[in-house]
Fold this protein.
Amino acid sequence: MYSVIDNNNKRPKQDDKKPKKGLQKEQLKTMSKADFLLLKEEMVSAFLEENDFPERYKAKDVINMIKNDKITLKDLATYHDNANTALFDTPVVGAEVYVSQNNGKSWTKTHTGYLDDVYYSYGYYFGQIRVQPNNPDKVYIFGVPILRSDDGGKNWKNIDGENVHSDHHALWLNPIRPGHLINGNDGGVNISYDDGSSWLKCTHPEVGQFYYVNVDDNEPYNVYGGAQDNGVWMGSHLYKNSTRWQSSGDYPYKSILGGDGMQVQIDARDNATIYTGFQFGNYFRINKLKRDRTSITPMHNLGDKPYRWNWQTPILLSPHNQDILYMGANKLLRSMNQGKDFSEISPDLTRGGKDGNVPYGTLTSIDESKLKFGLLYTGSDDGKIHVSKDGGNNWTLISASLPQDLWVSRIQASNSDEGTVYVSLNGYRDDNFKPYVYKSEDYGANWTDISLGLPQEPVNVVKEDPMDSDILYIGTDHGAYVSLDKGKSYMSIASDMPKTPVHDLVIQKKSRHLILATHGRSFYKVDIRHLPEVKQRSEESLIVFQPSDLRYSSQWGKKRNIFSSAVVPKLVFSAFAKNETDAKVEILNLDGQVLQSTTLPIKKGLAEYEFSLKLDELQLPKYLKSLEKSEWIKDNPLTKAEDGIYYLVPGKYDIRITSGNATSKAEFQIKVP
């Protein structure tokens, strides 16, 4: 039997890597004040420069601060210590492999020395081992890289490939074909048939874990998102999922930053200035046209405690002035000049933090009212919610009456009423899977539970529709829901989407599209234009909405070649049903003649469907008679297409759906090309 362990004991100092030249922060942790003051100013200056201290800290000034006890040497040594360095630079033993030849009665380590850079300090994230069923000497372990041993764990070889993403979590070994491997990692799935010498990259089904999504106001607009361990991406909303890019060589979505992609804010004045970053508050201002990038992460004052940044640090561009940027650490920070400088505008808005392998006691959500500058809300990972009505001068705790110690997954100020604010709480980290959504109409002084009707799923995000305040959108760990009555009742939305966590959502106002960021199946787009009409016609059990007009094409029914399928025109329409049903769907001309009819299963709620535009041949004589006055037919006689089907010609038509006593009709047009 083999076992792999994550040994978090510190390595003996003599096993540390060869020390670097010059003054090092580890030296400062044990150095006396007297010895420090004997150092040459040039050595201190070099230390400050090599460790990227802000320019305001000059060597002479720092020496005087130490001399006058304004700061300690520990302050200087730990100034740049953060969550990333704690993960990657902590000198732990790391991964170790052991073998037992007697059913676990005793164990022996298989290798000498350290297996460097496999786990760092977070082996709990991986921590798996595999043995080839027909060869007990062939062993695999995986963490950041994936390693193979051919001699029972004595020696190890990295079998990552150029097209294989790091951070490995799953490995299947074919029991009857040695060397056939299937690997699951933070970039998807890879397959090897030669024991890891080369790999195939699997891109279907499409996978992607997005934390956050945003959109700009371009036409067509772009979608931006931060993906787990796969950076920040941007692409046009017009892209439809396909494999076409593998032929063209041009994938429509482009990477604009690496690391674990996080939140994105876009300056609406130019749609080119972007604020985004990676884990633990490492954020940048990017001009996507000039392709320049500037780090904007604020640093604490020397001598103060470092800021605590959440893994997904919240940022926000003020809706009142796009030069103003907010960043949430354990305190709220504000820049008035696009991130060049930041000021603290709050005390610690958390419970104070706890020791652990990642920061805790951090802000997770921030928002500013679109109706009043300086009306600010914050939520934290330890359940605290605060409001400031004066731009951060004064803060009030408003979560005392809410369930305690939950993660504030989202807070949003209403777009239509100054005192209204929504909040969602999440308890899944403590095995609490209840939905928590609350609404306040008095700036958080009192709260109303509006989660009734939601399934027992943790809630990740709540958003109010920017154009209709009666409509709320909810993203949970199993899907997305919409309320048309301010949270009194809910129904599923995007029912065609896999049951995957929705971590974020955004509404593109001009197009009336809802973009969902899922943690597993990338982005989904939902047409929400019809929701206000559903709300207005709430008494009707069946509604068909006016489809977008089509443009006639002479290519309808034609084949590109003898081996291809014919081009078949489809009418795309949306329908709402209070209950799942089978409905008769018909296309009629304005004389009321039924030109095509079929039965379709209609889902409960709002969904999109397709319907053929072919003509029922039995209706041809009557249809031709109705077209006698058509100018189009005079020059374009109706004939069968290459596929042997008659298709509808330009004109106005109705689509009608019927189920039982319920019926609904809407007009559309086939336009002249």
Summary: The CA atoms of residues 215 and 223 lie 5 Å apart. The domain at 2-8+91-202 is CATH 2.130.10.10 (Methylamine Dehydrogenase; Chain H). The chain has a mean pLDDT of 94. The first strand starts at residue 2 and ends at 10.
